[in-house]
């Protein structure tokens, strides 16, 4: 049997969201979404756990829910580095074969100078795990009034990148955050930071096209963001790229779970 060459979605979740209803946040539905959108699998987090103080119960629920679907759905458990015993959470992620660990600095109140983020980044590098940082879940215009978490800043992302030579995936960032992060790093640091492209604007602002031309498609990763956003977004962004100088780009030119996992292993 040949390996499935379709891309792996780098940002998906299962479970409910505390501030509004989300559609069908179940693993069996996610598998169907992946087939529809042309993905072979997904890195999957447990959405409720991002808003809990202790990530351990959330990670246990994630591993249990994904057990029947592990050929397609790869767990990306939470590791909270300011929480006691986080090293055990990281070891469990490795034992479960996780390609990445989820980090939510905004929900935890961890800023650019917090040493815990640097410690986790060093540990992820040694473990060949991608450190997946979610900068926000929703735009300020739709965010619930009781959701007081701040967006993760470029200074926080740059701080992580500078403290350890780990592989970073930044999810939820727009053009401004990506550029403020990327152009504030050295070329060596830039090479280890990737950006989930799902939150970028297409025409008429053309933020996605601009970053493809300036950063390169290989720095941008493809995803569905299920169940938080429309899973077709990345297809629309790629299809709407101008076809003036060369043919439309394809999934293969962008980063995904395959390429990020390989990069992390080569970066140890």
Global structural class: alpha/beta
What is the CATH class name?
Alpha Beta
Q: Biggest β-sheet: count, sense, barrel?
A: 5 strands, parallel
Task: Specify the number of helices.
Answer: 11
How are the SSEs ordered, and which strands pair?
Blueprint lengths: L7 E7 L12 H11 L3 E6 L9 H11 L6 E3 L10 H10 L4 E4 L1 H4 L6 H13 L2 E5 L19 H10 L4 E4 L3 H8 L4 H4 L2 E4 L10 H8 L5 E2 L11 H7 L17 H10 L2
Parallel strand pairs: 1-2, 2-3, 4-5, 5-6, 6-7, 7-8
Short structural description:
With 268 residues, the protein is an alpha/beta fold. 36% of the residues lie in helices and 13% in strands.
Structure description:
This protein is of the alpha/beta class and 268 residues long. The chain has one domain: TIM Barrel (Alpha-Beta Barrel), CATH 3.20.20.140. The chain is 36% helix and 13% strand. It contains eleven helices and eight strands. It has helices at residues 27-37, 56-66, 86-95, 105-108, 115-127, 154-163, 175-182, 187-190, 207-214, 233-239, 257-266, and strands spanning 8-14, 41-46, 73-75, 100-103, 130-134, 168-171, 193-196, 220-221. The strands form two sheets. A five-stranded parallel β-sheet has the order 4-5-6-7-8. Strand 5 (130-134), helix 6 (154-163) and strand 6 (168-171) form a beta-alpha-beta unit. The protein is globular and about 55 Å long.
